[in-house]
Amino acid sequence: MKKILLVLSLVPALGLCQLKNKTFTIEGKVADTKRAVNNIIYLKYKQNGQQFTDSATLHNGNYRFKGNLQYPVKAVIQLKVADSVEKYYRSTRLLKDYAHEFYLDQGKLLANSSEKIQQTIVKGSLAEADHQKLTAKLAPFYTRSAALYETEGKKVYESKDAQAIAKYTRKSYAIQDQIDSVERDFMLNHLQSGIAFDMLQEYTRSALEPSEIEPMFQKIQSSLKASADGIAYAERIEKAKKTAIGALAPDFVLKDRNGKEQRLSSLKGKLVLLDFWGSWCMPCRQTHPHLKELYNEYKSKGLEILGVSNESGNQETDYKKWTTALDEDKMDWINVLNTNSRSDKNKGVLSDYGVAAFPTKVLIDQNGIIIKRFVGNTSRNAEMLDEIVKHRLKSTK
Predict the structure, then answer these.
(1) Are 202 and 370 in contact (CB under 8 A)?
(2) Residues 252-284: tens digit of each pLDDT
(3) What whole-number distance in Å separates Cα of residue 42 and Cα of residue 57?
(4) Of 221, 243, 265, at which residue does a domain stop?
(5) Crossing angle of helices 379-393/162-188, nearest 10°?
(6) Less CB within 10 Å around the terminal CB: N or C of the chain?
């Protein structure tokens, strides 16, 4: 068995000194090797930014891997196939039938693929056992989602009927909400699992509220917290505290369509909704009719909306796309254009507010304190926004 170190990455010494190597072995059997161009099976995984590839010779379809692991991690076993096959699967994005992804964990693992390697069943890995339990819980929802797309989604997108698309989208989001709920419940009940950190990262991909997430992070396996990714995630939590609920909203100045500077702090005394959107973002623009209703009802009572558009072209085309969208959506609240590209996440207002997905909305009270963050276009977000605005401005005449 040959081990190849493909990529090296510096990892903070604090993290490395807390990590201990744990032994694993994988004994497996592959039934279908027809696609393989050699008699080799490969095992690939990452640890602390380092990409490892092991290889083992197949003997009548049997193979064995042995190695060291610092923490549970996603891994792939796969056969070497012809370049034309690789190209086909890359272009179609179909699930590769000559590869299988699973969670690699310490101990003695048994891997058996009675048919295609894609259908391999791995036993002996505690992390993989949890992954299989979660997959079984989610399967009915993904089946419903696929069926909904086949019966409704294809037709409405082909018809380009905006109302039909919106109706289908609401149904699709409802199923996704159920998926998210199942995943969250599973994560909360399995924080010591080897898959918990991956679940936590996915759960906070678009938004991270430190008061909710930090206690969860502290409960995951110490080896995962001490990994390079774990250390980076701890830093992300600290950064998120700057725009967490209860924090003072970072001030910024951007120009409106007439070139006039608009400063967030000048709106102190009003209930302010920051709306991070873009002309290219259909889910963002689908929220604008609701914002228009909300603004018309509460602007005389102290509500102000500050739209921050985020485009990705050059200065001239950005301005045209932005102002065209303003006119089409008939937005009559304050709108400014973010001059930093949305692809540059380390600069400007997007970085300051930790915006990782669109639409993102941030509600700020009359004293400049952040009340709530909303990510995505869902009916639940709209309902919560309505309730908070109504509560905050109910005594205003």
Answers:
(1) no
(2) 999 999 999 999 999 999 999 999 999 999 999
(3) 9
(4) 243
(5) 80
(6) C
